[in-house]
Specification:
By secondary structure, the chain is α/β, with parallel strands linked by helices. The protein has a single domain (8-264), classed as NAD(P)-binding Rossmann-like Domain (Rossmann fold), CATH 3.40.50.720. Helix content is 43%, strand content 15%. It is built from eight helices and seven strands; from the N terminus they run βαβαβαβαβαβαααβ. It has a seven-stranded parallel beta sheet with strand order 3-2-1-4-5-6-7, with helices on both faces. The protein is globular and about 55 Å long.
Length: 268
C-alpha cells in the first residue's frame, strides 16, 4: 500500500460513487480528507461514514464552479489542518441535452447543455486547481490528480459534450504539469486518471436495465473491453494512491488508463 500518512487531501465530487470510493481509499492509506461537493446532505453522510471507520475527514460544501465557495472551503481546510498536499478533481458529469439520443444527430445538440457540461468538467477542474493549487505553489509541494475518461481518447458515440470536455482535461493536465514544474519546481506534480466504464448514478440507466441486465449499449461496451466487465469503483484506488504518493515523484503530465484494456483493443 502506498503511504499517505498525515497528507491533507481535497477531493471534489467526493460524495459520489467514484469519488466516494477514492476518498475511502485515501483515508485507508492514512490521509486526512476534505470531502467537497455542493450537496450538504451527501457530504455530511460521507464524512460520517469515514469518521465511523476511524478516519479523519471534514465537510467542504461548495460548488466547483463557484469561486467564492471554493475560497471559503480552502480557508476552512487550512484552518483545520494547515496545508493542502493533494487535490483530486473528481467532480464532473454529463446531461441529456449534451448527449445525442438514438433518434437524433449532432444538429439536435443543445448548445446550452453543451456549455453546462463543458463548464462542469473543464471549468470545474480548472477553477479548483487554481484556488487550491495556489496553496501548493506557496508550499513548493503538492500533487494534483484530474479525472479524465476513455471518451477523451477516441470517439464514443452520443456523448459529444462529455467527450469534448474530458479531452480538454487531458490537455490541461499536461499543460498544468509543465507550468507548475517550470514556475514552482519539481515538488508539484499534475497527472490524470482515465477511467474506462464504471457504473455510477449518472450512467446507470444507459448501461443497465431495471432488472440489472445490460442494455444494448452496455453489452457493446463489455464486448469491447478485453476483461469483459465494467470496473468497480475501488479499482481506481491503487492508481490514485500511486500518483498521490512520493513513490511517483518523477511522474508528471501523464494520463493513466484504468479501463480493463478498452483503450488497447482495436475491436478485431
Amino acid at each position: 500500500m502506498f503511504e499517505l500518512k498525515g497528507k491533507v487531501v481535497i477531493i471534489t465530487g467526493g460524495a459520489g460513487v467514484l469519488g466516494g470510493a477514492m476518498a475511502a481509499g485515501l483515508v485507508k492509506a492514512g490521509a486526512k480528507v476534505g470531502i467537497l461537493s455542493r450537496t450538504k446532505s451527501k457530504v455530511d453522510q460521507k464524512v460520517k461514514e469515514i469518521k465511523k471507520n476511524g478516519g479523519k475527514a471534514i465537510a467542504l460544501v461548495a460548488d466547483v464552479l463557484d469561486e467564492k465557495q471554493l475560497k471559503a472551503a480552502k480557508k476552512k481546510i487550512l484552518k483545520k489542518w494547515g496545508r493542502i498536499d493533494i487535490l483530486v478533481n473528481s467532480a464532473g458529469g454529463n446531461m441529456k441535452g449534451a448527449t445525442i439520443m438514438p433518434d437524433q444527430d449532432i444538429f439536435d445538440l443543445s448548445m446550452d447543455d453543451f456549455t453546462k457540461v463543458t463548464d462542469l468538467n473543464l471549468k470545474g477542474t480548472v477553477l479548483p486547481t487554481m484556488i487550491f493549487g495556489q496553496t501548493m505553489a506557496k508550499q513548493k509541494k503538492g500533487c494534483i490528480i484530474n479525472i479524465s475518461s476513455m471518451a477523451a481518447q477516441q470517439a464514443i458515440t452520443r456523448v459529444v459534450g462529455y467527450s469534448a470536455s474530458k479531452a480538454a482535461i487531458d490537455n490541461f493536465t499536461k499543460w498544468m504539469a509543465v507550468e507548475m514544474a517550470h514556475k514552482f519546481g519539481e515538488g508539484i506534480r499534475v497527472n490524470a486518471i482515465a477511467p474506462g466504464f464504471f457504473i455510477a448514478d449518472q450512467n446507470r440507466s444507459l448501461l443497465t436495465n431495471e432488472d440489472g441486465s445490460l442494455t444494448a449499449r452496455g453489452q457493446t461496451i463489455v464486448n469491447e473491453t478485453p476483461i469483459k466487465r465494467f470496473g468497480e469503483p475501488e479499482e481506481l484506488v491503487s492508481t490514485l494512491l500511486w500518483l498521490a504518493s512520493d513513490d511517483s515523484s518523477f511522474i508528471t503530465g501523464i494520463i493513466v488508463p484504468v479501463d480493463g484494456g478498452f483503450s488497447a483493443f482495436s475491436g478485431v
